[in-house]
Amino acid sequence: MTAVPDIEFRGVTKRYGAVTAVSGIDLAVPPSAFVALLGPSGCGKTTCLRMIGGFEQPSEGQVFIRGQDMAGTPPYRRPVNMVFQQYALFPHLDVEANVSYGLRQARPRLSSREIGQRAGEALEMVRLAGYGGRKIHELSGGQQQRVALARALVNKPAVLLLDEPLAALDKKLRTDMQIELQNLQREIGITFVLVTHDQEEALSMSDFVCVMNGGRIVQLGQPSEIYDEPADLFVADFVGKTNLLAGKVAGHAGDLVSVALADGTVIAARKRTALQQGETVSVSLRPESLSLGAPTSGQLKGVVRNRIFLGSTAEYAIEVQGIGTLLAKADHLIGQGNLFKPGEPVAIGFATGTPLAFPETKNNGTNQRVNKHVEIIS
Amino acid sequence: MRAFVIAVFAFLYLPIVLVVLFSFNAGHHASEFTGFSVQWYGKALSNPFLVEALKNSLFIATTSALLAAVFGTAAALGLARVGARTRAVFDALLGAAIVVPGVVIGISTLVALVQLFAVVNPFLASIWPGGQPPRLSLGYGSIIAAHGLFSMALVTMIVGTRLGSLDRNLVEASSDLYATPLTTFRSIVLPQIMPAVVAGFLLAFTFSFDDFIIAFFVAGAQTTLPIYVFASIRRGVTPEINAIATIVLVASVLLVVLAQWQLRQRKPSN
Question: For the domain bounded by A7-234, which CATH number is listed?
């Protein structure tokens, strides 16, 4: 059941002089997956992508593409294609010549009829049929993006690499392209590796998210796992919105720990790692896991400071004495009149086990974790 | 202030305007305008010495500019790959080569060539199997070498600037799309820097065509157009000289404008 992975990193480290950009990465990407490398800038995600493309060579370890060790293989001999961040379309060539550029390099040569036909199909696939004769500068940003996609996909690569492909587009276009990319990936069934710093983009588009920080993989999993079961404080904080409450471990009760918050309230929380009695912890509470109610009920009591009405939901900033401001998200049920007003006292409740307690050491990626060989089972 | 500016420009351009004006003079004197005529252009172009000098100049300018364009571009491409410190040293040397006075370049080139001939000619004679051995001497070759070398610095700077603004991603994208380094150079880099190469060629041509000082030192028995003009004003300034000067002026201005236009063409996009 473990097919040869499309991409595999084995103990890959990349140093630039004294700076370590990527350290000890192990990763296997199975065929036909949509994987996102997610992390803040400087976390090493782009370096990883460039090592797959062949633009950087690992200082240590190996990169495999479909089981082949790529050491010393230049970019032009690798069966992968990349969509560059600024598209990098050739300005002196028209759309058709850009798209067919890769096909023209094939040896033995392809017939010009075949090149023309495949370029036409690729343009059709990205809904730009009939744009072949246009100059690059005559196209809008979204169209240039699609030309870049067609130029890469026309070669039928083993893996498509996408370097922050949507960063330059406006929000509306970005959402459209997210859906388009997802559909394309399913249609042609090749592996997509997407690099992004936008957690929403990573969660919404990919089958697997690989969260990176400080040159290491912090967590690898399906989007829902990453969101619901963050491996550490960094992931909990970086992926999605969350409330982080400082506290101390007051006791253990089975799988749960009880945490005394700053104001003395004791709540039950799940834990990811073993925690010591009295250890300082951060408790993560997702805004949507909080329920608001009449001031007589609930674990925490506070006062609504701001309300952001979003149509189907409403977000509240609630000030809790001794703890700080919490963000809560509540569904808006039409006709129920369940909107709280600023200044109104409310009680905040949450189901047992929804809070997650993490040790207070911010994972900077250089400490503790020993990366295990991570295999995604598709 | 305004009068001052007018005076400066008048000082700069009035002599040139006069040269152009008097090239259309009907009279025989360069200092007295007696009516409009193009007879001096006809006279100039039917003067065999002048036509010979013009041909020499065109040949030397074309050859040296071609050499400068090829080797200057190669140098710029090489410099694009060296480290920042080496780069700074070479940039400084290139700049220096351009600001060194022509007299110094002329003299030093002459000295260098004479020394070179003194070594190479006996050597050639010693290894020559039979008959008359070739002898290197001042002439066409030395002017082309001197002009080509100087213009190379010019081309290297112009092409280097263009290369600096070339989007590195384009080269990577080409490589990603299976193009070998040679194909990438031919299909991506060269088209992107071509306007700068052409501009460099045109400026090199203009420089060589107009240059008197360096050519004067290394020309040997050869005559280029500027050398001919210089020699003939000793026999008195005639409107014929004005006509030649006007032709050179118009050609030079046209070439420089063309070079600038080339440099503005197809700016690297991003």
Answer: 3.40.50.300
Domain ranges within chain A, ordered by starting residue: 7-234, 241-333+341-359
**Residue A7, beta-bridge partner list:** A29, A65
Residues in chain A predicted with pLDDT less than 50, given as ranges, are 1, 362-378
A7-234 matches A241-333+341-359 in fold = no
Q: How many residues does chain A have?
A: 378
The Cα of B187 is separated from the nearest Cα of chain A by a number of Å equal to 10
Whether residue A138 lies within 8 A of chain B, CB to CB, comes out as no
What backbone torsions phi and psi does residue A369 show, to the nearest 5 degrees? -55, 130
Q: Do B177 and A102 touch (CB under 8 A)?
A: yes
Taking CB atoms and an 8 Å limit, are B178 and A88 in contact across chains? Answer: no
In which band, very low, low, confident or very high, does the pLDDT at B31 lie, cut at 50, 70 and 90?
A: low
CA distance B54 to B107: 24
List the domain boundaries for chain B: 49-264
The pLDDT value given to residue A111: 95
Model-level ipTM above the cut of 0.90: no
Chain B residues with beta carbon closer than 8 angstroms to that of A55: 172, 175-176
Taking an 8 Å cut-off on Cβ atoms, the answer to whether B177 and A81 are in contact is yes
Structure pTM? 0.80
Give the residue carrying structure tokens 């003939």. B232
Q: pLDDT tens, B96-118?
A: 888 899 899 999 999 999 999 99
Distance CA B169, CA B165 (A): 11
Task: Give the one of A75, A85, A91 whose C-beta lies nearest to B176's C-beta.
Answer: A75
Topology classification of domain B49-264: MetI-like fold (1.10.3720)
The fold for domain A241-333+341-359 equals OB fold (Dihydrolipoamide Acetyltransferase, E2P) (2.40.50)
The predicted structure's pLDDT at residue B224: 92
Residue B2 has pLDDT above 80, yes or no: yes
**Residue A132 to residue A117: CA distance in whole angstroms:** 12
Task: Specify the pLDDT at position A377.
Answer: 36
Q: Do B176 and A74 touch (CB under 8 A)?
A: no
Task: For residue A25, give the nearest of A279, A371, A378 by alpha carbon.
Answer: A371
Q: What's the pLDDT score for residue A363?
A: 45
In contact, B225 and B54? CB cutoff 8 Å: yes
